[in-house]
Prior knowledge:
Structural class: mainly alpha
Mean pLDDT: 82
Shape: elongated
Helix content: over 70%
Strand content: under 5%
Radius of gyration: 59 Å
Low-confidence stretches: 739-745
Amino acid sequence: MKETDREAVATAVQRVAGMLQRPDQLDKVEQYRRREARKKASVEARLKAAIQSQLDGVRTGLSQLHSALNDVTDIQRSLADVSRDWRQSINTVESLKDVKDAVVRHSQLAAAVENLKNIFSVPEIVRETQDLIEQGALLQAHRKLMDLECSRDGLMYEQYRMDSGNTRDMTLIHGYFGSTQGLSDELAKQLWMVLQRSLVTVRRDPTLLVSVVRIIEREEKIDRRILDRKKQTGFVPPGRPKNWKEKMFAILDRTVTTRIEGTQADTRESDKMWLVRHLEIIRKYVLDDLIVAKNLMVQCFPPHYEIFRNLLSMYHQALSTRMQELASEDLEANEIVSLLTWVLNTYTSAEMMGNAELAPEVDVSTLEPLLSPDVVSELLDTYMSTLTSNIIAWLRKALETDKKDWLKETEPEADQDGYYQTTLPAIVFQMFEQNLQVAAQISEDLKTKVLVLCLQQMNSFLSRYKDETQSYKEQHLRDRQHPHCYVQYVIAIINNCQTFKESIVSLKRKYLKSDVEAGVSLSQPSMDGILDAIAKEGCGSLLEEVFLDLEQHLSELMTRKWLLGSNAVDTICVTVEDYFNDFAKIKKPYKKRMTAEAQRRVVLEYLRAVMQKRISFRSAEERKEGAERMVREAAQLRHLFRKLASGFGEDADGYCDTITAVAEVIKLTDPSLLYLEVSTLVSKYPDIRDDHIGALLAMRGDTSRDMKQTIIETLEQGPTQANPNYVPIFKEIVVPSLNVAKLLK
C-alpha cells in the first residue's frame, strides 16, 4: 500500500511540475486545483458505480444458486417417486402381453380385410393382366401388375412384422400370388422386345417406346421405396429390386453389338470386297442410328437417362470390339488398308461421327481410338511385310511379261511422240501409284514408308532388268536373225530407261514432303546409274548391229581398191543413216549420246584403217589423191553426222577433223616440212604414240628410215601439254603387231 502511495505522490508531483513550469502559471493554481478536484470526483463516482454493479451481480448470482439448489432437491425427490412407480408396474406390463398380440393380429386382419377384395380377385386380375400384355396394352397391364404386387407385398410385410420367422405363412402368401412373378417376367419380355427394336419403334410408334420408359421409371421408383424401407425394417419383397433401368441399358447394349456384328453379309471366299462392303454397311447403319437417336429417341426418355450419350458409348465400344476382332483375323494387304483407312479416317470424318447432323453432341476429338496404337502398329508392320512380298512378285511378273514381248514378231507400241516403248514402266508405276494412293488414305507416315519401299524394290528390280537385257543381247548374238524385232525392242528398252527416270522423279515430287526428301533421294543416284548403264548397253548393242553391217565396207578403207575409187564410205554413210532412221524412235537424251558415239566409232575405225598399213603410197600423186579422198570423206562423214545431230545444239565436227589432220600429213609434198606437220598433229592429239607416227609415215611411202627415226626421237624429247577438254581417240587404236623398228625399215 505504501508503495502505491509513493507512486501516486511521485506521479502527482510530476504532473504539478508539468503545470507550473513558468512564473505566469502560478496565477492559475486555483484553476488547476478546481479542475483536478472535478476529475477526482468524477473518478470516485465511476468507481462507486462499478463497485455497486459488482455487488448487485453477486447478489443476483447467490439468489439463483439458492433456487437451483431447491430445484435439484425437487428433481431428486421426483426421480425417487418414478423409480418406485416403475418397480411396481413391471408385473402389470407382463400381464399385457396378450393385449399386445391381439393388437398385432388385429392389424394383420385389418390389412387382410383391406386387401380382401384384391385377394379374392387375384385369379381374375392375373387373367386380365395376361390379356392386356398379349394385346400390347403395356401401361394398363403394368397398372394391374402393380396392384397385385402391392397386395402381396402388403400382406407379406404385415406377416413379417408379426413373426418374421414364420416362413410357412410367408410361403403360403407367396404361393397364392405365384402368378405375379410370371406376369412380371412376361411383361419384361415385352418391354425388352420393344427396346430391341427401339430405333424402328421410335419412328413408327414413339408412344409405345414412351410407355415402356414410363413403366421402367415406375419400377425404379418402387425399387427406391422398397430399398428405403429395407433400411428401416429389413423387409424386401420377392423379386425386388427389379433394376429394370439397368437391364434396359444392358438390352440396348446387346442390341447394338448384335446390330454391328450382323452387318457382315459376305466372306472372302464369296466376295473379295467383303471387308469394304462390311465396313460401309456399318458406317451407314451407325450414322443412321445415331441421327435417329439424337433427333427422336432423346424425346422419349427422361433427360437424366442421357440416352444419346449412352448409345454413343455403346456404339463406340461395339465398334471397337468389332474392329479388334477383324484386326485379329488373317487379313490380306488390301484388307488391312481398308480396315485402317476406316478406323483412322472414315470413322471421324464427316461421313460418320463428324457428320454435321450429330453436332454438337458428338465431338470427334473426344472419341477414344477404335484400335490401340499397338494393334495399329502391328497391322502396319503386317501390311508392309505383305506389300513387300507383293511388290517383288508384281515386279517379277511384270518383267516376265515384258520379256515375252521382246520375242514378238511385231514392233513395240509407240507413245504419242512416236518413241518406241513397252508397257513395263506404265505397269510398274501404276502399281506404285495405286499403293501410294492407298497408303496416303491412312497416314502421311505410311505413305512415306511405302514410297521408300517402292524405291528400294525399284533399285533391285532395275538390277534384274539390266541382267535380262544383257541376256537378250547375248541371245540375239547367237542368232542375229532372231528375235525378229530385236532392234526395235532394244530401242524400247532404252526409252524405258528415260521413262523410268522421269517417273521416279514425278513419283517423289508428288508423294514426298520436302523435309524428308533428302533422306529418300539418296537412292536416286544409284537408280540413275543403273538406268544409264542399261541405256548405254542398249545403245552399244544397236551400234554393234550397225558396225557388224559396216565391217565389210570398213575393211575396204585405205586399200588399193579404196584408192582406185571404192564407194565404201558412201555405203557406210547410207547404212548409218538408214539405221539412224530407225534410231529416230529413241528419246532425245540417249539418241544424242548414241549419235556422238556412232561418230566417234566411225572415225575411230577410219583411223584404225589408216594405222593398219593396208596401203603404202608409191608416189606423190597417190599421196595427193589419197589425202584428198580422205578430206572428201571426212567432209562426207561430217555432213552425215551434222545431219544426224541436228537439234541437239552441239558441234559434231570434232572427230571428223581428226581425219582431215591426218590427211594433211599424208598430203604434204615437201619432206623437209614433215617434222613440223607431224609435230602439229601431235600437239593437237597428244595421245598419238610412236607406233601411230611410224604407221602414218610408213603409209606415206616416201620417208627414209633415218628421217622416221629423227622425227620420232625429236617428238619424244618434247612432250606436249594436253588440252583439258581433249577426248583421247588414238589411244584406242592398236597398231598391228609391227614394232617401230620394223616400220622404220
